[in-house]
Design a protein that fits this description.
single chain; alpha+beta; three-stranded antiparallel beta sheet; 3 helices
């Protein structure tokens, strides 16, 4: 979104296209469409995958209920959810992104932060 009067970008959005491609061993490798410096596109093996962040997200999904759902060991209060919490944490990190980190890095950090907050609360 562009502020034409102020001649500046207000916010932007990134899209990524991923595909699981089978290698010669029959295993799937995640690749994404990437634009190269010369303007062409091609499939590139995904880097930056964070198994630790994925494990933490799985734990959160299995153990934390949304909107006061007490069927889980722990839960958010009514009108609040894990997705809301992750969105807020991601936006906080993105708005203070002085190092120009990629979106997936910020998302992994948001997962880690929310997971750690829940662990601290549980251990009290």
């Amino acid at each position: 979104m562009v502020d034409k009067k102020g001649s500046k970008i207000i916010h932007s959005i990134d899209f990524a296209i991923f595909q699981d491609i089978r290698n010669a061993d029959g295993e799937f490798i995640e690749k994404y469409a990437r634009k190269y410096d010369n303007g062409s596109y091609g499939w590139t093996t995904r880097g930056g995958k964070n198994d630790e962040a994925l494990e933490k997200l799985e734990w959160l999904n299995k153990n934390i209920g949304d909107n006061g759902n007490q069927k889980y060991p722990y839960w958010y209060s009514e009108d609040f959810s894990l997705l809301d919490d992750l969105k807020q944490e991601y936006l906080k990190l993105n708005n203070n992104n002085d190092e120009e980190k990629c979106s997936f890095q910020l998302f992994n950090e948001a997962i880690d932060n929310i997971y750690n907050q829940w662990q601290q609360w549980i251990n009290k």
